[in-house]
Structure formats: structure tokens, C-alpha cells
Amino acid sequence: MRDVSAWREQFPILKRKVHGKPLVYLDNAATTQKPQSVLQVERHYYEHLNANIHRGVHALSQEATDAFEGARDKVRQFLNAKHTEEIIFTRGATEAINLVAQSWGRSEVRAGDEILVSEMEHHANIVPWQMLCEATGATLKVIPIDERGGLVPGAVESLMGERTRLVAITQVSNALGTVNPLGDIIRLARAAGALVLVDGAQAVAHMPVDVTALDCDFYVFSGHKLYGPTGIGVLYGKRALLNKMPPWQGGGDMIAEVTFRKTTYNQLPYKFEAGTPHIAGAIGLGAAVDFVRSVGLEKIAEHEDHLLQQATRLAAQMEGMRLVGTMPGKASILSFVLEGVHPHDIGTILDSEGVAIRTGHHCAMPVMDHYCLPATARASFAMYNTTDEVEVLFEALHRVKEMFLI
Ligand code: C6P
Description:
By secondary structure, the protein is an alpha/beta fold. The chain folds into two domains: 2-30 and 296-403, Aspartate Aminotransferase, domain 1, CATH 3.90.1150; 39-294, Aspartate Aminotransferase, domain 2, CATH 3.40.640. It is built from 14 helices and 17 strands. The protein has a seven-stranded mixed beta sheet, sandwiched between helices. Strand 1 and strand 2 form a beta hairpin. The longest helix has 21 residues, at 59-79. The two termini are 34 Å apart. Bound molecules: ligand C6P. Residues 29-30, 92-94, 122, 124-125, 170, 174, 199, 201-202, 222, 358, 362-363 line the site of ligand C6P.
């Protein structure tokens, strides 16, 4: 707990009150709060370095470029990628997946090919593939989940075939908390000659990630779920693959030479970064990576697991409460329904107690369909949450039950 108090100190927003109550922020899967170091670095950038990058000969532009490229290398180290040019800055996980679907997909996928996703994917890892299938005549195949919210055993093997071109799979489900067995999936994909894209949006803030050890082909995440700014995210891709892929957006910075007759493209990573990027965001993400590494992801994971275990015990003691997603080894997410109360009412009453959770379909409608639910309530934990806050969550849930006379 001593550690957690020191961590909390870094987050100014945690001191505020909501409806006169101390803020208990349990909507971390939607976005995390930002530590002082990230806020300071962004402010410092605009106060001291602000200039466009890769263009100017003047000092500010060079310093801004150094800071931006320095952030790229921090991300490379964070993911343990082999080469800095394998790190492409995007607006977020969503844009990174769309980049792969548009660039790799449109050039490589043919009618009759198959793309494999799972039933627990976020819409960001479904819709771009559906759009690709519509455009190419490929087929989207779905790995089903079981009642606990895990992939049905044996389903990946049985769905993988010689037409499978790509498996697009989340590392951690945002609606269920399930952690997928990526090692097994990647091995199976390799044997079938398919590529693997991992959606790491819900993983990077909760567990160490090593893309070289994983041997995935693409890995995506968003900065704002990793204590960094919104509007910045990352696509990691193996260099040989990225080199073969065509650019997906045209404009400044992504070109080598432009004439009306022909345009040639820049080298990696710039080929995929058309236009002025979110410079301050990338630098802020670099600071977020520094912050998380200074604390240590093992330590964060251990603390969050402690909170999840406590919440799971309290949930088991609460009559009428049902957890949605009960796989062992879950990460930081408690999705639930309360008999007789709509999740939106739970969220509204909790808000009046200062407790922020998310309610709804969590952009994972197929998961809701699987459980025949319109929505769930979801509490999601971060490094700065405390055991006292978990108690407050359950006291507030007891109040919900009293109000609904259940
Ligand atoms: N999930 C949630 O509340 P963006 O919007 O691009 O930063 O991230 C998209 C995304 C992709 N994959 C997974 C597994 C995600 O959880 C998310 C974002 C948020 O669960 C907002 S819907």
C-alpha cells in the first residue's frame, strides 16, 4: 500500500471530488489517468520545443525531431522490438488495425482467403476486417468463446486452414478480462502459414509485452490506456513485412520524391506517417513508457491482481451479482450484471457516489450477444486503485440493491 500511495501522488486528477465525494476512478479500460511526468513533458514541448519535425533546419525543429524520434525508440524498447523503424505512430489502436487492413490487406488478400478473429474482439478488431472482406471477397471466420469467456478449446486448430491469411486476436478482452493464449495461437498460425496481428490495447498497461519473444507479425496499442495522451498509438510490424506493404495514406513526410509523373515513397517508418503527426502526443507517450517502466509492470500486475481477487471475492458474496467473464488468470477487469437492475442505472447511481465505471456493450456487441445481454457494468483497475476503493465500489453496489429493493 505504501507503493500505491506514492503512485497515486503522481496523478493530480485523483485528488478531485465528484458530486462532493472523493473520485474512485474504475474506468481504466476506457482510458487511464495521466501522471505528472506525462503532463509536464507535453507542457514542456509546447513551451520550449514546439516546431514541425523532419522538415526544419532550425534548432526548434531539430530538437522537436530528436524528442519525437527518442519517443519512438522508447516504445521500441518497451515492446522489445528489434528495430526502431518497426514502430509506426498512429492515432491509436483503431487506426493501427485499419492501417494493416488497408495496406497489407488490400495488397495481399484475395477472394476465398480467410481472416480469423475471435468472438471476444473489440469492434476495432472486427469492422476493419469485415470491410476488407467486403472489398476483396475474403471470408471472416470467428473463433467462438465458451461460457467462461475463453476461446473454445480446439477451435483455433479447427478453423485454421490453408486459406487462413491472418489471425487478428486480442491479448486481453476489454469486455471479459480474458487473457488469450497467444503463444499457442501464434504457433498454430505459423504452421498454417498465416500472419498474426495482436490487439494489445488492454494488455500493455497490465503485463510486460515482448513482441520478439511472442513472434507476432503486428502488435497494436493506444497511448491513452497506458497513462499516456489520447490521439497517439502504435503499430509494431516486422520490418520485412512493413517494407513490402504499400503506403495507405498519401501526403507530406511519407514521400521520397514527387513529380506529376510518379511519386516514390519514403523509407520506414515515415512511409506510414503521412502529414504532421501528434508530436506532443508521441513525446507524452514516451514519458508514459518511462513512467510505467520505472514502476515495473510486474509490480503493477501483482497489485492489480490483488484488487481483482478482492473484488471477485466480494462479488461472490453479493446476492444477485453475476460476473461476465470468469476465466482464470483474468486481467484487471470485472464485468458484471446485477439481477433486476439495468447496468446504466448501476452506473448512474455509482457516479452519484463518486465511483466511475463503464456500462454498455463496451464496443464488443458480439460478446453481449453471446451472453444474451444488452449491456454489462464494468469496473476496471489500474496501478493507482486501492483496496479501500474496491470496498467503496461494493458499498455503492449495496446501495444500488437497496434502492431497487433487491
Ligand atoms: N476500448 C473500452 O472502454 P482506441 O479507441 O483506438 O484507443 O482503442 C480501441 C480498442 C481496441 N481494442 C481493444 C481491446 C479495446 O479495448 C479498445 C478500446 C475502450 O473498452 C474504449 S471502447
